[in-house]
Amino acid sequence: MKKIFTVLVAGLMISAQAFAVTTKDVCGQFNGELWIDWDSYGSKSVYLLPGTTENTLTFVLPDFSFLGGKLGNIVLPNISMDADGKLSLKETSLYLDSINLRASIKMLNNYEDEGETYNSIVSATQAQITLEIAEPKTLPMPIIVIFEGQALRSNNFALPNGGFEGQWVNNEPVAWHSFASATGDYVNFVKGNTQQFVASNDVRPGSEGTQSILLSSNNLFGVKANGNCTNGQINAGSMKADDAANNYNFSDPANNGFNTAFQGRPDSIAFWAKYQPADKNPNNEVNKARMSTIITTNARYQDPEAADYSEVKVATAAINYAATADLGWQRISVPFTYTGIAGEPAYILTTFTTNHVPGGGSSEKGKLDSVYIDDVELIYNKTLNSFSIGENALQFNQRVATVNENYCDSCADYVAAAEGKTAQTFIGFDAAHKCIHVYVIADDFAQSGDYRLYRVEFRDSQTDDLDPLNQGVENLLHNTISSEKVLINGQLFIRSNDAWYNATGIRVK
C-alpha cells in the first residue's frame, strides 16, 4: 500500500507543478481503493462536486461502512484547494444518520505513519484523500480513512458529435456514417451515393453550432432508398429495401470505427428535426420519419432485427414522427425503456431515417422526402422529487426551501428522493450557514460535470425574524427559548438557540 501511495502522490505533485489546478479541473468521479486503518475495504467511488461557496469543493464518499456497519454517506462541503491541488478542511462535525452518530472529522495533509507521508491532494486525473474521524463515546481512538483513485474522465455517457459539427471526412462527419462507408454484397451500388447525407447550415433555433445534417430519399436503380445515417455501419445486402436480414444498420464490438462505446443508463434521448415529406398530407401515416436508439451489451446488434436479440438489448427508444404544420424545426424527446436484462451497457446504436417504412415515402425526381437533424443528446434526469424532514415534505422554490425551525442536523430524519434512472442524492450539513445542501447527480457527472444543487434553509422564527439592530442583551434573552451569557476573552456573547450574538444583540455566528 505504501508504495502505491508514494507513486500516486509523486505523480500528483508533478502534475500540480506543471500548471495551477482549479476546482473546475478536478470535479468529477474518482474510482479507486478505500483503506481504513490500513485495512483495504475494496473498490470505491468518490465524487468531488463544486462547493457551495466560491472556489471550494464538496467531497462525497457514498455508502461508507466500517466494521460491518453501514454509516451512510460522508459529505464534506466547502473544502479549500490551493493551486497545487492540496485540500484543506478545518475540523468539522459529521452526522452519520444511520446510527445517530456525531463525529468530528479532519482532512489531513502530511500525515505520517512508519516513515510514509499521506496527503489530501487532487489533480484532474488522480486523487488521494486522507481523513481522521473521531468519536470519543464509541471509538477508543480516531480512525484513519484513506482513498486513492483515478479520475473517471470517460466520454462513454453521451453520443459523440451530437451536433454534427466539424470537418467531414469521406463525406461523413466524425462518429456518424451513411452509404459512403457501407458494407455488404451490394455495397458497390450505394458506395457513391453521397447526396442522401450532406451537411447543412440550417441549424435548429438557438443552436450554438453551425451545422446540421440533411437526409434525403432517393431512387437507386428503381429501388426506393430512404435517407439513412447511423453511428454504426450500414449493411447493403439486398436490392429489396424491406429485406431486414440483409439491409440493416449494425453495431459490432469487433468493427472498430463503426461502433460507439457506451456505459450510461440515460432516461431519454432528445433531438431536433425538421421533417419535410414530399407528400404534405398530414393524415397519411406513411409520412413519418424515424429515430431509433438501442443500448446493448458487449455484443453484435442490428436494426431492424432479423433474429432474437432480447439478451443483448439493455434499453430501447424509438419514435416515428410526423412533420410540423409549418414543416419547421421541432424538438423531440423519447424515453428509454429498460428491458431488465442482467448485462451492462457497452454500446449504443442510433439511426435516423427519412421514413419509418423501409423503402417508404417518396423517391420521385423533384419530389423527395428530407429531414434535417441537429443537436442529439442523451438526457439523465436529476430532479429532486421530494425532501422530507420526518413526516413533513418540503416545497422548493427555485431549488430553495425554508424551514421555520432551529437548524439541527441530528434532530430528525431527512429523506431525499430524486427522479432519474441513475440519480443519486447526497445530503451535506452546513452548520455555519444553518442549512442543508442536497446534491443530485447521475451517470453523466463523470463526463459532463452536470449536477443539481438544492438548499434547505433553517430560520428560527423565535429569533431570526427579530430586527438585530433593535435587540439589546435583555431583549434577546427575554424573547428566546434558550439563552445564556458567555464570557470569551473578556467579551460578552449570548448563545441563543444555537446562534451567537455580541453584547449589542448583533448576530455574529
Observed structural traits:
Lipocalin, 38 strands, single chain, eight-stranded antiparallel beta barrel, 5 helices, 509 residues, Jelly Rolls, five-stranded antiparallel beta sheet, mainly beta
Describe this structure in words.
This protein is mostly beta strands and 509 residues long. The protein has 4 domains: 2-151, Lipocalin; 179-379, BT2081, beta-jelly-roll domain (Jelly Rolls, Sandwich); 383-458, no CATH class; 468-502, no CATH class. A hairpin with a 2-residue loop joins strand 36 and strand 37 (491-496). The longest helix has 17 residues, at 2-18. The radius of gyration is 29 Å and the shape is elongated. Residues 461-482 have low confidence and may be disordered.
Radius of gyration: 29 Å
Mean pLDDT: 84
First and last CA, distance:
43 Å
- Count the helices. How many? 5
Shape: elongated
Strand content: 35-45%
Number of domains: 4
Please state how the strands of the largest beta sheet are arranged side by side.
1-2-3-4-5-6-10-11
What is the helix fraction of residues, given as a range?
Answer: under 10%
Q: What do we call the CATH topology of the largest domain? A: Jelly Rolls
Using the coordinates above, name the CATH class of the largest domain: Mainly Beta
In CATH, the homologous superfamily of the largest domain goes by the name: BT2081, beta-jelly-roll domain
Please give the structural blueprint.
Layout lengths: L1 H17 L4 H4 L1 E9 L2 E12 L5 E11 L2 E13 L5 E10 L4 E7 L3 E3 L2 E3 L2 E2 L3 E9 L8 E9 L35 H4 L6 E4 L11 E5 L1 E3 L2 E3 L2 E3 L2 E4 L10 E5 L16 E9 L12 E8 L4 E3 L9 E9 L8 E6 L1 E2 L8 E7 L9 E2 L2 E2 L1 E10 L3 E7 L2 E2 L6 E4 L10 E6 L4 E7 L4 E7 L3 H4 L3 E7 L14 H6 L4 E6 L2 E6 L2 E4 L7
Parallel strand pairs: 31-35
Antiparallel strand pairs: 1-2, 1-11, 2-3, 3-4, 4-5, 5-6, 6-10, 7-8, 9-10, 10-11, 12-13, 13-28, 14-15, 16-25, 17-18, 18-21, 19-23, 19-28, 20-22, 20-25, 22-24, 26-27, 29-30, 29-32, 33-34, 34-35, 36-37, 37-38
